[in-house]
TrEMBL record:
Keywords: Aminoacyl-tRNA synthetase, ATP-binding, Cytoplasm, Ligase, Nucleotide-binding, Protein biosynthesis. Its EC number is 6.1.1.17. Residues 9-309 form the Glutamyl/glutaminyl-tRNA synthetase class Ib catalytic domain. Pfam families: Anticodon_2, tRNA-synt_1c. GO terms for molecular function: ATP binding; glutamate-tRNA ligase activity; tRNA binding; zinc ion binding. GO terms for biological process: glutamyl-tRNA aminoacylation. Residues 329-468 form the Aminoacyl-tRNA synthetase class I anticodon-binding domain. A motif ('KMSKS' region) lies at residues 243-247. This is Glutamate--tRNA ligase. Catalyzes the attachment of glutamate to tRNA(Glu) in a two-step reaction: glutamate is first activated by ATP to form Glu-AMP and then transferred to the acceptor end of tRNA(Glu). It is found in: Cytoplasm. It comes from Asticcacaulis benevestitus DSM 16100 = ATCC BAA-896.
């Protein structure tokens, strides 16, 4: 990848720190960056901010990319790992020192704490006594940090595409460390250098980074570089309006996958979470890309609504390819201990189109198919046994004889045959429906009788019916 992009092309980035799983808020940030890049015909890049080597783990990196891959958010160029650019970061710091915009500071930790306390009492941020001193060669051999030499009391206005103009006072901003005493670059320095070198034009991220935008703007200015457009989006809150936490339920993207949500549903829902396009709630990727603009992002925090997410997911399950649903349900069944039989996929292929209308998740869809996977004959529950009167048994035996003559086995045909049967019997369907469901459903929730029969198939239907009637 070339590290300099033309400013005329929009370039966004998602820059996670690999210290844990991909949080749902991070997923939305990645999605907004991806959408805006696609909307403008630009590029979406990923940079792993792993300068904190002690906390960054391979497992966390894998979890982040698994989450992004599941969501379908692919970068348009090679992934950048920040720690691999350490040499460039140090070179950039050396440039600031040479320009008089950074300096070596030799304060010990104790001296730093004392100076910070004195500064607090004086009403401004920490100022190092080394700020305007030129260290000797011997002193430079000693342990020290490199600090940024920022303005002392100017007003700093950071334009933000979501928040508007945000004003900071530089007297409240200490001279942040750019290089630690071990020579490792710090977050704010590395971010600015990397964003500049990668040609990032728009920094779309959570509003918890708003203070960082002020510090980073000063560093941009010190280098003489053009600032990107900042867009700080409000964080996601729980349904109760409090900051999202474990008590609100799933937080990691992987959790939502395990709970049975579809990636297209998550993209749909997360796009709508803090951004709006009129009253549209359901839309596909093409529509989202066409409509999405940073100007549509709300200033107020969004609230995670699991009921609405379920409704959105239910829509995408209903329109999903049935063969894909079979694979997803099969994976869910195997993951919960179900052993695949030779005819399992055949049964699911018949059943899922008939039961998917009421499922909000793949987990629910798998549960809805359990009735069809049981092998008869099955024992009857007490409620069903009590419904088996002499009259009912006689009528169901006639139904069994009738079923043997059916020459079709789709739900519509079966529905018509059942209506003809009860009409010829001169009774309402309520006379046989409950007991027939009890016999056929194997004790599991099941759809209406015609769909139930179509799902379990002719042979299994006859087997369960005969077993229930002891014939």
């Amino acid at each position: 990848m070339t590290m300099t992009q033309l400013k005329s092309q929009v370039v966004t980035r998602f820059a996670p720190s690999p210290t844990g799983y991909l949080h749902i808020g991070g997923a939305r940030t990645a999605l907004f960056n991806w959408l805006y890049a696609k909307h403008t015909g630009g590029k979406f890049l990923i940079r792993v901010e792993d300068t904190d080597r002690e906390r960054s783990t391979v497992a966390a990196v894998d979890a982040i990319f698994e989450g992004l891959d599941w969501l379908g958010l692919k970068p348009d160029d090679t992934v950048v790992f920040q720690h691999a650019r350490e040499k460039r970061h140090k070179q950039a710091v050396a440039e600031l020192v040479a320009k008089g915009r950074a300096y070596a500071c030799f304060m010990t930790q104790e001296e730093t704490e004392m100076a910070r306390e004195d500064a607090r009492e004086a009403g401004h941020a920490l100022r190092s006594p080394w700020r305007d001193r030129t260290p000797t060669g011997a002193e430079l051999e000693q342990a020290h940090v490199i600090r940024f030499k920022g303005p002392l009391g100017d007003a700093l206005v950071v334009p933000d595409a979501v928040q508007g103009d945000v004003t900071f006072n530089t007297k409240d901003m200490d001279d942040l460390i750019l290089l630690r005493s071990d020579g490792n670059p710090t977050y704010n320095l590395a971010v600015v250098v990397d964003d500049h070198d990668m040609g990032i034009t728009h920094v779309i991220r959570g509003d918890d980074h708003l203070n960082n935008a002020a510090r980073q703007s000063l560093i941009y200015m010190a280098f003489g570089w053009e600032l990107p457009t900042f867009a700080h989006i409000p964080l996601i809150h729980g349904p109760d309006g409090a900051k999202l936490s474990k008590r609100h339920g799933a937080q990691a993207v992987g959790d939502y996958q395990s709970l049975g949500y579809l990636p297209e549903a998550m993209r749909n829902y997360l796009t709508r979470l803090g951004w709006s396009h009129g009253d549209d709630e359901i839309f596909d990727d093409a529509q989202a890309i066409e409509w999405f603009d940073v100007s549509g992002i709300n200033k107020a925090p969004a609230r995670l609504d699991f009921a609405k997410l379920g409704s959105v997911n239910a829509h995408w399950i209903r329109v999903a390819d049935d063969a894909r649903l079979v694979n997803l349900v099969m994976a869910e069944l195997i993951g919960t201990g179900h052993k695949e039989a030779p005819d399992t996929r055949e049964i699911l292929t018949r059943t899922l189109p008939l039961v998917k209308e009421r499922a909000q998740t793949i987990v629910q869809l798998a549960q809805a198919a359990h009735f069809a996977l049981v092998k008869g004959p099955v024992p009857l529950d007490e409620k069903t046994k009590n419904l088996l009167t002499e009259e009912t048994i006689s009528r169901l035996k006639r139904l069994h004889e009738n079923v043997l003559l059916w020459d079709n086995w789709d739900a519509d045909y079966i529905d018509g045959q059942l209506k003809n049967f009860v009409e010829n019997e001169g009774v309402g369907f309520g006379k046989i429906g409950p007991v027939l469901r009890g016999i056929l459903s194997a004790g599991h929730p099941a759809p209406d009788i015609s769909r139930l029969l179509a799902s379990i198939g002719r042979e299994e239907s006859l087997l369960r019916l005969k077993g229930g009637l002891f014939i």
